[in-house]
Amino acid sequence: MKIIVDCFGGDNCPKAAVEGAVLAINEKKDLTVALVGKKEDIEANLAPLSYDKDRVEIIDAQDVITNDDSPVIAIRRKKESSMVVALKTLADVDAYDGMVSSGNTGALLTGGTLIVKRLNSVTRACLAPIVPTAVDKKYTIVCDAGANVDCDPSMLKEFAIMGDVYVKTLFDIEKPTVALLNNGAEEEKGNALTKETYQILKNSSLNFVGNVESTDFVSGNVDVIVCDGFAGNVAIKSTEGMAKNFMRMLKSAILGGGLRAKLGYLLLKPALLSVKSKMSTDEVGGAVLLGLKKVIIKAHGSSKELPFKAAILQVCKLAERNICEKIEKGLNA
Amino acid sequence: MKIIVDCFGGDNCPKAAVEGAVLAINEKKDLTVALVGKKEDIEANLAPLSYDKDRVEIIDAQDVITNDDSPVIAIRRKKESSMVVALKTLADVDAYDGMVSSGNTGALLTGGTLIVKRLNSVTRACLAPIVPTAVDKKYTIVCDAGANVDCDPSMLKEFAIMGDVYVKTLFDIEKPTVALLNNGAEEEKGNALTKETYQILKNSSLNFVGNVESTDFVSGNVDVIVCDGFAGNVAIKSTEGMAKNFMRMLKSAILGGGLRAKLGYLLLKPALLSVKSKMSTDEVGGAVLLGLKKVIIKAHGSSKELPFKAAILQVCKLAERNICEKIEKGLNA
Predict the structure, then answer these.
(1) Which residues sit opposite B57 in a β-bridge?
(2) Testing the interface with A: which of B73, B239, B245, B250 to mutate, by most A Cβ within 10 A?
């Protein structure tokens, strides 16, 4: 396995990316990583670490795509950025199996499609994050979470098939449950898009379990939730917004609650941390761009070394298990 | 003020509706209520209460629309249901100023439009709930939260104007901030619908502050969030889903955390309850159906007597301040 790591663009880069890559090769002995970005910075971050130097390669790229860059313009113009160099290397060199980046999501989507390109049977690539749920060790995959904001039913069917293959490949679930995000559980519910998609999914060979409402995003009731990228983005961000604001309110209630509340918080802290860790994907990985010719994972922008390591190992698993071939096969079945 | 209360259809009906109505008339001395539903049940629930009997009227209706009923069919066929009788009375009798129901939302929307009817300038009525936020005493209004799942930009403009009038009328905010729900903050973001709507709102006389992402649903940053009913429904339900699952996980972490966690919980309980009460609209009211000829409020299905009282007083406030005329005026400006 040879995995490319875009070491710039994320909040904790390059340190987190470099350290995560070293953790990954120290754990997986057949893995080689190519670290892309400002050579001197990468070397400085590698210096204190202990690892097998034969399995770390550096590809110099002096420019960086930031979150303020417009995706399409950045991919076209920032030819020397770590992301574009990483994508080009992935596309051009057969030996590389996949890539991880914690940079600008839009740019990665655009660059993935323009440079690495879609699989032959794929009309649109989709962004499929892993959503942690209230059920222990149970995750829900959302396709699409924002790559395609205007969709038609045939695209949603494609997302459903790719999501199904993805869950089978990543989690070894034999018959993943696939649900359609809708504004009600009943078959007749929905807008023009979901009503038509429902009938298509119902008549597919997928293990389609019908509609779910967005309350089910974190319930852990289904394996794959299919939706257009606009609705997926809305659902994920309002879930995140609620979690963040809940913690904010709790913090302010504790600070305003005097000694009693502070003592209560100290005693309850392990339980609160266990909830926080349950809602984290740090050890699971990032969001995959489904439908491209090679595996690309978008790690969260705030990723530290452990999420980077997890995302790199996730790419390995998906590449080793030939997810791209399986997606082609699934779409042609 | 004469307000109609549909006393059936909600989880705690008729008790909560009847008690809420009595609380409302005991607080507001110029208020008369008409309680609609099974006469004998309403009388039984009134019997132990102390109130001015001249200001409570009972309108008998022996049937009930449940949440399992299909909205359109229920409104057409259940002519003797408390909801249909209430809506017909509201539509036909000038003296009644508005209505509260905690029954089937879809049926109330359908019945409101078919029986009470839209204002002359309104193309589509929308459902506008009050969303509690992390900021104390600050609420955000969402239009539309589910009445119209397929929208065009002109409908979204109408929702924006109605939402603006609503916030001015209910909360005495002079220049409400109006934002568009989108998948990014930048002007160029969005799907076909939001991109076109952005330009329309930007060129309107509203205090349009641009796009918000759904993380802002509970941040308290804006007064009105405009969106199509599908996206609004998704955002609200994932917010609710996260809140519910967070509490579920916290509970299980406390139960599994031994004596230490349980003691911590007891000490922290007042702080946790203060967060819970901050996220409640029990004292504020329900979701209004904006754009109809009279004021109709949908109280939450799980409403107890205090939310019923709040919703009834909310109808009074909106009717006294002539919201329907103001909406007509706003749409014709």
Answers:
(1) B34
(2) B245
